[in-house]
Design brief:
With 295 residues, the protein is an alpha+beta fold. The chain has 2 domains: 168 residues, Jelly Rolls (Sandwich); 106 residues, Homeodomain-like (Arc Repressor Mutant, subunit A, Orthogonal Bundle), CATH 1.10.10. It has 12 helices and 11 strands. α9 packs antiparallel against α10 and α10 packs across α11. This is AraC family transcriptional regulator. GO terms for molecular function: DNA-binding transcription factor activity; sequence-specific DNA binding. InterPro entries: AraC_XylS_family_regulators, Homeodomain-like_sf, HTH_AraC.
Amino acid sequence: MLRSFEQLCQETVEGWQIAADDGHAAQANSGAYAQPWHWHDCVMLILPSCGAVELQHEDRRQGTWLTHDRFAVVPANRAHMTRAGAGAHHVALYATESMLSRLDSELGSLREFHRRTRAAVLVQRTPRVRALQALATGAEHGGYGHAGITRSLAVALLIQCIAEVMAGPVLSAVSRAEHGMALVAELKNYIARHADEDIPLDALGERFGASRRHITRLFRRATGLSVGEFQQRVRLQTARELLGGTDLPIGEVAFRVGFDSGTALSHAMRRVDGCSPSEVRKASPRRTVSAGRPG
């Protein structure tokens, strides 16, 4: 099934379209979805930012996984299919041949880009690409208030991706084991950012597109810990840093790291460290900072 550039520019799914202009379009997608086998009459780039996107294409029908560290370029008229779990977030960029010809004349030869993308390729998602992707999607959510700025950011993201394809290494396909390790890394990062919250395994499974059982087995095999044990370690480490570096009351420290009370923090800390929060504070070099909560 052909999904033409004109069809992409007329995309009506709410929240998908970031920008669409003459020869260029950008779309953001969040949550579970699946696109059956199809092709475009333009080049497509897929840039995950959270979770994993599975990509199959006629050059590699067994499929590969795209995670936050890499993006894919699929040439025009190359059949492919994609699917993602509930927690996946990615941006898709589309560029017609006329758009690429215009960039070639304005910015310099794209011969190396065309040579490297005769078949679908995977390329490293660099900090520059990540920053521009964040700006482009921020603009889509109303961060800059002007459609012209949004289009400019989307074009800048496309140009940076093209530059990375020409100058950076072409990456190998991600194996199932590598995908598992990437998933664990994303899980650890997410749990660490939300360590003060109760995170049900079912919610993690929905966010990252994997079953509760798969996450449990994968996480323990990679870390030697359950998800709950890892979260407890993060909470206690954060508590130690707050105790040693601030004058916050122990009850406030407990609240900030996810414990119901100072007593609950004390019990957990004595069980792991063999000492109370007060003893941890006395033994730590002090770095006094404001004890007020952020507004």
